[in-house]
Design a protein that fits this description.
Elements lengths: L1 E2 L2 E2 L14 H55 L5 H8 L8 H18 L1
Antiparallel strand pairs: 1-2
Length: 116
């Protein structure tokens, strides 16, 4: 064949496949499969841990929501829950969840006292 002044030989294009030992090729394939399974197992373990931590967070938030619902229903009936009284008086020892609500209690206390 003549293409643009060059003579081409008919046949396959590109590199010729190297003569690879069949056993070595199979062993590489097996090793690759083992590594893939190991990565997959690690990925699933990570995802399972992530799901369980999110489920624990959801349970904690549901409990907190239920507590707030109870507070609201008590306030609708004209009663002030002892936890809210503790927030208003600044008594941090009576708080049901001391960690995250401390900041909120200070901010809400300041905003309540500034409105009075």
């Amino acid at each position: 064949m003549m293409v643009a002044g060059k003579v081409k030989k008919p046949g396959k294009r590109g590199r010729k496949p190297a003569k690879i030992d069949l056993k070595a090729k199979l062993e590489r394939s097996r090793q690759s499969a083992r590594e893939c399974r190991a990565r997959k197992k690690l990925r699933y373990q990570y995802l399972e841990e992530l799901v369980s931590s999110k489920e624990r967070a959801i349970c904690a938030l549901r409990e907190e929501l239920e507590m707030y619902k109870q507070w609201c229903s008590a306030m609708d009936q004209g009663k002030i829950p002892s936890e809210i009284k503790a927030l208003l008086t600044g008594d941090d020892q009576k708080l049901p969840q001391g960690g995250s609500s401390t900041k909120t209690s200070k901010n809400s206390k300041n905003s309540i006292s500034s409105n009075v």
